[in-house]
Amino acid sequence: MAKTAEIQHSVSRESLSRAFSDVLETERFTDYCPNGLQVEGKAQIELLVTGVTASLAFLEAAIAAGADAVLVHHGWFWRGEDPRIVGPRRMRIAAVLNAELNLYGYHLPLDAHPRLGNNAQLARLLGWPIDPAAVSRFGDQGIGWCADLPAPTQTTQLCDRLERALHRAPLAVGALDRPIRRLAWCTGAAHSMLAQAIDAGADAFVSGEINEPTVHLAREAGVVYIAAGHHATERWGVQAVGAEIAHKLGIEHRFIDDSNPV
Asked: What average pLDDT is seen over the chain?
């Protein structure tokens, strides 16, 4: 599929890089990967495609759509990973280089943005508080969010809303009969932050993934932990950032979802 004929305007790679950096304030974060332009491609950009992860399937779909640049939440070059360009890594990098595709990846900055980030967009989708005056931050670099709900809710009600919004059944563990008045959330794989959410006064903590110790901590602390899906909870921030930046620069934006059950 080619770019739509109506889109005539293009911007330089440097202008797009600057726009992302200005919005996401990457210098504020210590992260596990480089934030920003991870692979340099063509100099001019008309179509920006966004997605959650720079998987081969996503990249091939973006290239087929005519993308000049892609923006993802889960990019490449993670701390501690094998640096060799072999196997699946070679196939991904070859696809990007052959298509002269610019690859942008933003991890923690895209989680934390107070308006466009994953936590903010999940809250907007679910009707949770998003006003900075109502939300407190917790955890490393203030990544976790916590707020009082407008009215107490039950775990079953919260899970029903999550399933309707994310099209995925969440897993809830812990004190499932406890009324939820104060809710904490952090998208993705933030299950290790449950103890910090408890210290922040949360009755329940929503994130993406779960591990075995999380179940015991939730039960013993008398709180609720809900795993709503790593991919499912992180589909929204990248779309919001991509749409806003593309509109500001006058280029086309498209979201492509390489679905993931985790």
From this structure: 96
